[in-house]
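re: ur question from earlier - yeah i can do the single chain one, its not a big deal. heres the input i used so u can compare w yours
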Amino acid sequence: MKIICLSIIVILVILTVSSGIAYAENTLSVLFMKSNSVGKIYANYTFRVLDNHTWDISPGIFTSVSDSSVPKDLSIVANPSSVIASKSIVPVTFTITAKNDAKGVYALFLFYCGESPLVVGLNESEVNPAILNQFFNARWNCPNMNASTPDLKIVGYSGIISKTISTNDTNNVKIQNIQVQPSSIKVGDTFTINATLVNNSPNTISLQQFVMDHFL
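and the output i got, formated as tokens:
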């Protein structure tokens, strides 16, 4: 949290300041499983084009959205490890094994594009919302899709619980306790805005000083 004073020269119009700041609320599905356990994800691959093409399935679990290293105490395998577009629906089971008291929030990749949060050995109250918001703010380098690309649909779980969790978007900065000095200003005056900028995350707030030529 930082308190920053800004000096702004008003040239064209009088500035009106409001303290009502809105921030977004994110909702996503989060998977929970216990430490030292085995969980299964049951999924169906649906093919729109039956061209007998073979698709390799290479799921992964990573330390975090920003860290692609593989945690040594977690593993995931797919059965089967490849599917052939010879029929409309092909079932696949993903098996996740957590050992050696592994705990944390990890990035789970199942197929094609994007990652989702996998929480191991923690309750919902122990999960930092800022970590979950990283999944919303991440930018994925997704390959091009075409008519032959199958759709993945999860149809069930074993040893895993899926919860829908809402979190505030910590990527937005809130402005609180706004005070203007002097309280009465007119065009051409110099005045100071004292405010508290809060981003509710460990990320640093960056701010540049500036002079406004106009404000509409």
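Residues 62 and 107 are 5 Å apart (CA to CA). not sure if urs matches, ping me
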